[in-house]
Design goal:
Chains A, B: Its EC number is 6.3.4.21. Two copies of one chain form a homodimer. Chain A has 494 residues and is an alpha/beta fold. In chain A, 37% of the residues lie in helices and 19% in strands. The first copy, chain A, contains 16 helices and 23 strands. The interface between A and B is large, with 133 and 133 residues.
């Protein structure tokens, strides 16, 4: 066993994996490309996903900052090479070549926080084949995960904000996240997706995400009585106390004790900040607690609710008149569990080699890739709302009246409308292996917020959303059909 | 933003989070305990879960090695303290106390790889209240995640092994795992749960897990023809080549080309190792491919299958006569997606303070904790099979004929059988903050294997399993009922 070097990036202040974080086959293929003298061929790989997470109408693209930092820094250390030598799969001459390996390619991508859709190239790597091949695993890992969580966050935040009284979201999933770094990545992505704060102190330190928290049941149980415990916490943080009401009984014990403390704080010139509900019927309890707080003259005490929340539970609490101000969301936000299955199925496919189109057919036609160098165009109507995305060949632009087709079914065609303006939303984030793009996390968060507002009506609906149209330009669809025929014709032959 | 120190543990060779990886409220509560002079009180917290993951009959306990290393090393660096000062929540005197903070408590736990069940204390921390409080977040994070994945792995491996022809599992979920470290933790836990190998090179380097892999579609597309691509790979690894058959068409193109290469290798004194199916009807394709390989004289060429597999898909492939030798399992293994929801809901509850029992009631009686210092006993029948687990007060042992009760429902009682031998399966893994336990990962893997074999019939069934009995000893159940009454009686009072 070796000790691969770890990198703590001073920019994103995140632990990044070494180049050795890859699938074995990337290295055996690199070896093969190198041995055959094919490794310097110019390849383009597209990264995309086929279905929106959570059966929703969109994705929120996240993780790009981390991905670029990984690409900038990926190297093989002497310890890494010694480990690879020990596997018996890699001869010395190839390992010597790996010692000098670095990523020198170009990367074009949607900027972080952009709202994105299935079957469009979210990120494209263009450069030497063996470079583009190695980084597949890490790119997919970082971008799949953070995009999944940012999307979940946008859904949860949207549900919370749909209350007539407003509502915000606190991410506190660290204890259920997939490992310590999974918790950090989730906190980062959830912030991009719109959450207001996190309970994760390390995420606050690394990313500057606002921290929030209350106290636990153990605090209450550590004092002779619940009231003693509440008083002790309020004495410590007289202007920043949120009391957890359900250690013994929310309405019979927690709330009366909290009201006592609220009055005591008021008498001393302070104010109880909030109360937290963590079990029971949150709609009923929040209505009741709100009414009693208001009657007692505490309309500004906020109600925090938690307990296995997700966007659907939040919607149901609001539908039943619940009066929650802040939703603490843990497990399902930090892991993307539930409908999302805990993973986004992003893929990374070779689409061009030495200027020639490449594609993969497989048994499932819907999984066939879209070959070639491409551009993505995002259309905006006169009202400022998005009208759809069109993917064209590299040097083409969408034309009003053009018949464009669905990437998964060429029979589904639409005609591009008059009066839309088309813009390429992607940016060159790396060139020659150097970073060409950098922005604070807040900029990604703001992009997500404004992009979501610009989507067509129904796109952000949680269930059965409007399906945003991503289409292939006419020439690209024709080229793809032609290549598909050629591949089928020569199938099996040499 | 600060730069919290990161620790690369030379023993487990894993990146560990700093002490700052905790929820904000742990620190505000620590501050409160410290301010009130309560921080040195001796507390016991129990870590347990309430439902087996994946609606199954057991859990495979994993992550303990990482958790102990975290506890040994958790410290607050000057940069951490500077960040905490910046939050405005922590005065200098408390931060000065934190500078000297370290974990000095005792930890009793099931050894890693043990098969475990709901509502039994898997790990108990006994020591100063503020120490036990801080580490809740990291302990739950590490142990919830790795136990989830080890359990999933055991299910998947069990399904693969149920074929009359045998079958093993390769973990290759890195590209869909929750962050780079999530992929490493998943590879580690999956190995404990019984997988044979991983594609994750970094996991191989860090944990010594055997590496395996094939090649990707991009390899095939990078050559003039599929046969050229197969020949090039076989030239590179003449005794370690597994060819991916479905880039164009599995039966019409991939298989005939693989047979050509198999014959060419044979003529040169080598042997094709395997072929891989990655799309289509795996039961039909694997039967057909097996028959054609056998007819052609290649009975030793292994069939690897992949494509969104989990334990249920594997069972169905086997049920339909599929002839897969190695299942490559990615997303659902590395994230515990599907029925598991991507998370195990382990909790960490205060059960004793200064020798006195503590418990939490809440609105949901099934969520009430089991108070007090306890021991876990695992019963073994004369046939060597487990008969059930019993939790007793600290100084008690189970007695034949004792009426023991279900932790979630005191009305469900059973009588302990004659002739069972009872053993405490937990070990003291830390004492005085020092590690008292260490073992190679292979030992945990072997423990999981043998423990699973000893479970009662039906416990490892994937759906509607036999429910292994975990019971409270008579005295513990009585003490709990009495404390519950006392708490209810004084509810709302001071």
């Amino acid at each position: 066993m070796t000790d691969p070097a770890l990198t703590l990036d001073p920019r994103s202040a995140r632990v990044l994996p070494p180049a050795l974080f890859t699938d074995l086959y990337q290295l055996t293929m690199m070896h093969g490309y190198w041995r055959a003298g094919l490794h310097e061929q110019t390849a383009t790989f597209d990264l995309y996903y086929r279905r929106n997470p959570f059966r929703g109408g969109y994705g929120v693209w996240a993780g790009l900052g981390d991905a670029v930092t990984f690409l900038e820094r990926a190297r093989f250390t002497p310890a890494d090479l010694a480990f690879l030598a020990d596997t018996g799969l890699f001869p010395d001459d190839f390992l010597a070549a790996l010692a000098d390996w670095r990523f020198t390619a170009r990367v074009d991508a949607f900027p972080e926080g952009a709202v994105v859709f299935p079957n469009e190239p979210l990120l494209s790597v263009t450069g030497p084949l063996w470079e583009a091949q190695l980084v597949e695993t890490a790119l997919l890992n970082i971008l799949n995960f953070q995009t999944l969580i940012a999307t979940k966050a946008a859904r949860v935040v949207g549900a919370a904000a749909s209350s007539p009284h407003g509502g915000t979201v606190l991410e506190f999933g660290a204890r259920r996240a997939q490992g310590p770094d999974g918790a950090l990545g989730a906190a980062r992505a959830a912030f991009v997706g719109g959450v207001t704060s996190t309970s994760n102190v390390l995420a606050g330190a690394r990313y500057g995400i606002p921290l929030a928290g209350t106290h636990a049941h153990a605090w209450v149980e550590s004092f002779p009585s619940e009231l003693d415990a509440f008083r002790a916490y309020a004495a410590l943080y007289p202007d920043a106390t949120t009391l957890l009401l359900d250690t013994y009984d929310t309405l019979a014990s927690g709330l009366p004790n909290a009201l006592t403390v609220a009055r005591e704080l008021q008498a001393r010139g302070h104010a109880l900040r909030g109360v937290r509900l963590d079990s029971g019927d949150l709609a009923y309890l929040s209505r009741t607690v709100r009414a009693r707080l208001d009657e007692a003259g505490f309309p500004d005490v906020r109600i925090v609710a938690s307990n296995d929340l997700d966007e659907f539970v939040i919607e149901s609490v609001i539908r039943e008149g619940g009066r929650v101000d802040i939703y603490g969301v843990g497990t399902r936000l930090a892991t993307g569990g539930g409908e999302g299955g805990g993973a986004l199925g992003g893929v990374y496919k070779l689409v061009a080699l030495n200027g020639e189109d490449r594609m993969k057919l497989t048994g499932d036609p819907a999984k066939a890739s879209v070959p070639g160098l491409k551009r993505v165009w995002r259309g905006e109507g006169a009202d400022g709302r998005l009208v759809g995305d069109v993917i064209t060949r590299d040097r083409q632009t969408p034309r009003a009246g053009e018949a464009v087709s669905d990437p998964t079914n060429p029979l589904r065609r639409i005609t591009l409308p008059e009066g839309a303006s088309w813009r390429d939303p992607r940016v060159t984030v790396m060139d020659g292996g150097e970073r060409r793009w950098s922005e604070p996390l807040e900029a990604a968060r703001e992009r997500a917020r404004t992009d979501l507002q610009r989507t067509p009506e129904g796109t952000t609906r949680l269930l059965n959303p409007h399906l945003y149209r991503v289409s292939l330009g006419a020439a690209l669809a024709e080229d793809r059909a032609r290549l598909m025929e050629q591949l089928r014709a020569r199938m099996g032959g040499t």
